[in-house]
Amino acid sequence: MKQLILGNLNYSSWSIRPLLVARHVGLPVEEVIVPLDFPDTSAKLKEISPTAKVPLLIWDAQTVWESLAITEWIAEWAGPGQVWPEDAAARAVARAAASEMHAGFPALRSLCPMDIRSRHAAPEMSDGLKADIARIDGLWCDLRERFGAGGPFLFGQWSAADAFYTPVVTRFRTYGLPLSGPAQAYADAVLSDPKFRVLEEQAKAEPWWIKYGPDGRSSGSLKPAG
Ligand SMILES: N[C@@H](CCC(=O)N[C@@H](CS)C(=O)NCC(=O)O)C(=O)O
User: Fold this and answer.
1) Cα dihedral across residues 74, 161, 194, 15: positive or negative
2) Which of 51, 139, 155, 213 is at 20 to 30 A from 184, Cα to Cα?
3) pLDDT of the residue at 224
4) How many domains does the chain divide into?
5) Model-wide pTM > 0.85
C-alpha cells in the first residue's frame, strides 16, 4: 500500500507541502484526504498515525510522519536535484529556509490560517505579524537575488523550498498582506505554477468548510462528501 494521507487541501497547509513535492516528482502514491475538524477525524487519524496528524506517508511497511521528513523521504526516492537544488550550497540554504518555515512564523500562522479559495480582511497588524511579514519578504528577496537566476522560484527552478512557502504565499493573497515588488513577483510565480493551479481547483471543489471565530474553530460540509 502506497498512500499519502492528507487533510483538506484548502486548509491543511502541512499537507499540501509534501503533496506538491510528490506531484512535482511523480511519486506513484494514492492521495487520501481525511477531512479535518470533524468529530471522527482524530479517531480516524489515531488508527494510522503515531501523531494523529496529517500529512502521513504510508509506503508498504514504512510509515513516515512530519511534512519535512516526508519531503526528505521523497527527495531520496526521486534522486539528486529533483526536490532540492543540485548545488550543495544552494541546497543547504534551501533546507534552512524550509526548516525556518516549518518551525517559525507563529503570528502569521495563527492570525492568518490558510484558506486558499477565500479572501478575508487582514487582521490587525500586531508587532509579531509585522515581524513575520518583514522576515518572509526579506528572505524571498534575498534568495531570489542570490540563487534565483535560473527561473522564477526561490532557487531558480522549483524546489521543496517553494513547496514549503506555497501556503505562505496563499496567506498573503487570502488576507491581502503587503509585499515588496520582488517578493510579489515571486508570489505570482508560485500562484501561476500549473501544479499549484490544479491544487487550487481541487481546494475550490472541496465540500468541507472550517471557520475560525472568537470561540474557536467550527467545521461542516456543504454537501455530503463523496
Ligand atoms: N509538524 C507537523 C504538523 C502537522 C499538523 O499539525 N497537521 C494538522 C493539519 S494541518 C493536523 O493533522 N491536525 C489534526 C487534527 O486537526 O485533528 C508536520 O509538519 O507535518
Assistant:
1) positive
2) 213
3) 53
4) 2
5) yes
In a domain, 210, yes or no: no
Closest atom of ligand 1 relative to the 55 alpha carbon: 20
Q: Is residue 212 part of a domain?
A: no
Cell of 82: 529533483
Pocket of ligand 1, candidates 42, 54, 64: which has the most ligand atoms within 8 Å of its Cβ, to mutate? 54
99 and 192 in a single domain? The answer is yes
| Residues 106 and 193 occupy one common structural domain | yes
Residue of 11, 14, 21, 37 best suited for mutating to test ligand 1, as the one with most atoms within 8 Å of CB: 14
Residues 76 and 92 in one domain: no
Q: Which residues contact 59 (CB under 8 A, 6 or more apart)?
A: 2, 29, 73
- The minimum-distance atom of ligand 1 relative to the CA of 54 is 12
Q: Which residues line ligand 1 (CB under 6 A)?
A: 7, 12-15, 36-37, 41-42, 53-55, 66-67
- The whole-angstrom distance between residue 53's C-alpha and the CA centroid of its chain comes to 15
User: Are residues 101 and 70 both part of a single domain?
Assistant: no
In a domain, 221, yes or no: no
Residue 188: how many CA atoms within 13 Å on its side-chain side? Answer: 7
Task: Please check whether residues 97 and 42 belong to one and the same domain.
Answer: no
Q: What is the pLDDT of residues 77-105, one digit of tens each?
A: 999 999 999 999 999 999 999 999 999 99
pLDDT-based confidence at 223, cuts 50/70/90? low
Ligand 1, atom 10: closest residue by C-alpha: 12
